[in-house]
Design brief:
6-stranded mixed beta sheet; 36% helix; 238 residues
Amino acid sequence: MRPFAVLEARAGRAVLHELRDGALSGQEYLSASAARAGSDIPPDRILQLNAPPDAEVPTLALPAGHVGAIRQITPLGLLPATMRVLIGGVVRERADWEGIICLPDGEQTLWAHVSAREIVSFQGAASARLAAAFGVPFEGSCDPVAMDDTMSRPERLAVQLNSATLAGNTSAIRGHLIGAELAAMRPYWLGQKVVIVAEASPYAEALSRLGVEVRIARRAETWHTGLLALGRAAGMAG
């Protein structure tokens, strides 16, 4: 396999992900032009990540070329190009797989319905951003009683968060936030197979308690697999 690369814009800098004989390496540069100049991979074998939005749902997880975000009108949403790569990594060897891919990512969590390598719909939730506003790390255990309480009565979320904050109960804060999110996302997990792309996630325990079939996909491995899948879609990898 001839080497190829994927160029990702990241917080004012650029990261060049090079794939040589299936092995992945990454190098950070000050700019996209510096990344291209610093690599011996030909420009026509460098795919651009974070291109402008190029599709609306439903659409293939990975296009045959540069990768942009995916727009959704109802409900309003934007699925970043990096998430498309992770979804492509999950479904690379599952041509006929249908299910839900849960993608926790810093400030938000994206839930994507995937069927036959197409992203059918998706929805984002700001639970991690809300946890940060309360000064609580989102990763960690969540109180199952708090989660169940808010799932059954989500209209009490603001009151419950206030009580948990006064008590300094970080586990309860996470439980209430995840309970509210799971109540809103019920169509995305009820009766579905769910893959969570994360090294560790409070969603796995929460969904398992609800009887959902859950599998964890390690993010680093899924990213590598997704980049290979992107190369294959673009005709650059076997």
